[in-house]
Amino acid sequence: MQSLIEIRRRIEAGSLTPEAAIRASLEAVAAGDDAIRAFVHLDPTAGPGREGPLQGIAVGVKDIVDVAGQPTGMGSPIYDGWRPFADAPVTSLLRRAGATPVGKTSTTAFAYIDPTPTRNPRNPAHTPGGSSSGSAAAVAAGMVPLAIGTQTGGSVIRPASFCGVAAIKPSYRMLPAIGVKCFSWSLDTVGLFAAGVADVAYGLAALTGRGELLPQGEPGAPRIGVVVQDFAGEADPAILQAVEQAAAAAEAEGARVTRVNLPPIFAAAFAAHATIQDFEAAQALAFEQDRHRDALPPLLRGLLDAAAGIEPGAYDAARSTANRARGALRDVFLDVDVLLTVSAPGPAPETLASTGTSAFNRLWTLMGTPCVNVPGLADARGLPLGVQVVAPFGADALALSAARFVESALRDA
């Protein structure tokens, strides 16, 4: 994989030019993407952007995010040939920081769960996850050092876990979601993929201008609460063991590790996620449903058909449950700095007909909290296993610092 920080270090040292860095990424895509199929569009003429903290950094942008002049197909034939006139605000933030959006990465149709043709670089017979399939795969395959994705259920953290890369789903609305095809306005969150946690932190700091997100020396030892999300279903023993490994490694390096049992309100909030997501999706995709129903893929078409039966009162009750759970989460964080849990139900499934389940991510998306996937572990077959660090809303710097601590502890274990 390409380290964003290492590329910037070499550029600042004068041993690499921004032009050469962008060219290297374009060549990597040209050499490897026939097998991985991470990109649906590439600009072979792309060059370095203006001077800034991300100059020389090639970025893959999920194909539901507008990039002026590049096609935004949204994973659907409905939008074949559509080229937006303007950048989405997050794309403008990339350009202002000096980054170069070199192309659009594959997405499931409208960021739902009907799979894409993208392969997992760790094992092409296994799904890369979704819906940000191409963004995770492009970073994992070493094509680009930074990629943009989105998460409504688990579409950043899960594919990062499956592909063995770092990722952050920041606090809700830290990155603007305007100019991003909406699925659920209460949940859609723009996130980042990169090689390691420090790379993700650097990228998010560059986009937001939040210097506190930058890696600051060695991270301090956090108070970690280990959470098992029983309400989300069964997890593979390998991923549960990965969490235990990460907790033990962090404890050996000085972290205080405790077990946290979430109150019943969180099981109710987990169930409320689907009501909120589906009710809003039925409205956000009303045009596609009303005008192009036959062109929708089967799983999305079925969801929208079923969502038409959700009553407004049920939606209001689900939002009320979510609000109560957010209040309860503040109490959970009184005794711990961050939570540690699984990033996915297990390693990437051996199928290209499914992107896997987002069950272990949905609660945290609904809570709006920052979540970081920490890579570095694998099962007996070598398939990546990610662990997820969750911090209070707005405490993105804490989430990244704690994730760096766990990442470093795993390397030293």
From TrEMBL:
InterPro entries registered for this protein in UniProt: Amidase, Amidase_dom, AS_sf
Entry's transmembrane regions: none
Domain Amidase: 34-398
Origin: domain of life: Bacteria
Matching Pfam families: Amidase
Region of interest called Disordered, as start-end residue ranges on this chain: 111-134
GO molecular function: catalytic activity
PANTHER family, per database record: GLUTAMYL-TRNA(GLN) AMIDOTRANSFERASE SUBUNIT A (PTHR11895:SF151), TRANSAMIDASE (PTHR11895)
Protein family according to the UniProt entry: Belongs to the amidase family.
Protein name: Amidase
Source organism: Salinarimonas soli
Phylogenetic lineage: Bacteria, Pseudomonadati, Pseudomonadota, Alphaproteobacteria, Hyphomicrobiales
